[in-house]
Design goal:
By secondary structure, the protein is an alpha/beta fold. 43% of the residues lie in helices and 15% in strands. The protein has a domain at 7-178 and 208-234 and 298-313: 3-Layer(aba) Sandwich (Rossmann fold), CATH 3.40.50.720.
Length: 333
């Protein structure tokens, strides 16, 4: 009997990537993971995976990583709202995505799944949930992260039109265990659960359990249509309602001071200035505030209909996130 060819998961030391690796293992796949030499590997502890060293900016390492693999799940990305060097993010998220998909095609990869983001999608003007067909106002994309994911997704769509078998998934805001960095959403949950968030700027977002995002990647691999996008979301929340849910789970009082965007703008300017001097990511930026003006609500109806995607209640995601942050010392007041 021929040996089972591995599936390659990039970004597998990260929050979403490690969940995707776990989902692939649970389905019986032989899993190879690509990590950078400097990657924090705590999320890979105890997993039965083959580890290869690679970097999205090193084409030779990508060719080695994909060699002999059957499928590619490309999850690796630079996910930050503020970056001191925007060009570096574009190189990783756009050029790196093209490089590894092309390396996979050259190596005979049968199918790839590209982890994009709802950040690459359009938003409705009236705040109703957007879907995969909502037009994107490219000029109105806020920040280099959203721009990088949009440009990368457009490049992937072009590859699919040229015949490469690649499916795109667009996760919303993933929440749950092993958010070691943490992500911007994870940091908000950690701070709110610890009582370190006395005030907020209201906005709207879609929250989904990271395990459901991971499951969606495997469903896309198995059932997705090449060149199609699939939103992997959960529940839409106004931020005030999400904070109330976090407070209820954590046994805290919910923050009750709602700040207008304009009142926080000067603080964002100061924090960005300090960040440029220190290199430490600011707590709030002008891009955060620009994004807060729009409700980032999304529908996962297409993924449900075509992939059989069924996310669990958002409360479970918050409960798992709070429990993990507390167990790892990140949500203690």
């Amino acid at each position: 009997m021929a040996e089972l060819k591995p599936i390659l998961v990039t970004g597998a030391s990260g929050f979403v990537g490690s969940a995707v690796a776990r989902a692939a293992i649970a389905r019986g796949h032989r899993v190879r993971v690509m990590v950078r030499p400097t990657s924090d590997r705590r999320n890979l502890a105890g997993l039965d995976v083959e580890v290869v060293i690679g970097d999205l900016t090193d084409p030779a390492s990508l060719a080695r990583a994909v060699s002999g693999c059957r499928h590619l799940l490309h999850v690796a990305a630079d996910y930050r709202i503020w970056v001191p060097d925007p060009a570096a993010m574009l190189r990783a998220n756009v050029d790196g995505t093209l490089a590894i998909l092309r390396a996979g095609q050259a190596a005979g990869i049968e199918r790839a799944v590209y982890c994009s983001s709802v950040a690459a999608l359009g938003l409705t003007k009236d705040g109703t949930p957007a879907d995969e067909t909502t037009p994107v106002d490219e000029a109105g994309l806020v920040g280099v992260y959203k721009r990088s994911k949009y440009l990368a997704e457009q490049a992937v769509v072009a590859l699919a039109r040229q015949g490469q078998d690649v499916v795109i998934v667009n996760p919303a805001a993933p929440v749950g265990p092993r958010d070691i960095k943490p992500t911007p959403t994870g940091r908000m949950i950690s701070d709110a659960a610890a009582g370190r968030m006395p005030a907020y700027v209201d906005t709207g977002l879609n929250v989904v359990h990271v395990a459901d995002v991971a499951e969606g990647h495997l469903l896309a691999l198995e059932r997705g249509r090449a060149g199609e996008r699939y939103i992997l979301g959960g529940e839409n929340f106004l931020l005030r309602d999400l904070l109330a849910l976090i407070a209820d789970v954590a046994g805290r009082r919910a923050p009750f001071i709602r700040l207008p965007v304009g009142a926080v703008w000067p603080a964002a300017l100061v924090m960005e200035g300090l960040a440029r001097l220190t290199g430490i990511e600011p707590l709030v930026t002008r891009d955060h505030l620009k994004m807060a003006r729009k409700k980032m609500f999304f529908s996962s109806a297409k993924a449900a209909a075509e992939l059989g995607y069924v996310p669990r209640p958002a409360r479970m995601a918050v409960e798992d996130a709070v429990a993990w942050f507390r167990a790892n010392g990140a949500s203690r007041g």
